[in-house]
Amino acid sequence: MHDTMKRWLVLALALGVCSGNTAPPQPGWTPAEITTLKHWVAAAPEDALPVLPTHDLDQALAGPDHAAIDQAATRLALALARIHLRGATTPTQGQDWHLVDTDARIDIAAQLGAVLAGSGGSTALDRFFAGARPQSPDYAVLRTAYASERDPARRATLALNMERWRWMPRSLAPDHIEVNTAAFEVSLWRQGHRVGTWPVVVGKPKSPTPVFSAEVTGVTFNPWWDVPADIARESIIGLMRRHPALARQRGYVHTAGRYRQRPGPANALGQMKLVMPNPFNVYLHDTPEKKLFARDVRAFSHGCVRVGDALGFATTLMQGTASADAIKAILATSRTTTVDLAARLPVYVTYFTATTHADGTLAFLPDVYGRDADQGHADDPAHDCAG
User: Fold this and answer.
1) Under 8 Å between Cβ of 147 and 154
2) What is the pLDDT of residue 188?
């Protein structure tokens, strides 16, 4: 992987793709700052990143043209900051990675200019590069483990997952929901601290849960289930034709050209689902199939994320908005009711095969979707939620 990254970066630098050609002129570099820059270039492998070529800067340093030195140093510094910030590779469609990296909006050229124009010198430059790294505590754990790991396969797994963090926003919102489909769990974070973790069932390998981000606006209790067309063709239409009484008992109806399932104990969404609009029609919800949560590997859905103790999860999520008693009262009515959150909450659906346990210790996880082994050829099917 590193050889591929290195070839890509050398080509990108030669073509000016990530060399900062569009950046405004920067203030002059001091000798101490250039020494610091070269230190960070040489130290890139500590973050599982390639060492960028320095020949342009070395050539400029051999001459008397200070403007050429400044330009070469700035190009190199911006290229280095960009790979720390956004990765040395890009996520591929084959990895089913659709999470938007908002770091693309960060003006690192302006940040570097402010560092060079200030009085912080090399110390400020150190902070600039360190600040470009992912700020997640998980990344720090992976980086520390990578430094001491000697097994090639585990090092490769650590390197790949460090790169995945660079495909994420540098800093996640202090309050957010984070699903790791490889770990079969969802965590709720408040003010930068994990306040709870719940087991989940995720998509089967043939219908993997995609990596994406969305915003949760509320919780729907006693939900109807709008059956996706492929699932209706697969099972529901036949059930309604061959066993209409059983289909009615399970709550299935056909109305206005749609197949739906009424709220109730057999509903595929259970007693609640999160309102989190996204192009994949994938969301977090309850399920009547509780027995699946007893398994270690929980990849059984058509793509959606089924939450264990979903009502406990919803009650924790709704703290400050709706009490446990209020939620019980809503459920008792059997009526479909949506309760809005006080503020939108980001949800990140991710895939990390090297991560941390709730206590912060390192965990290596099975590559259930084969995304580690084959980054370019994984399935990328449609993702209608199946429940």
Assistant:
1) no
2) 97
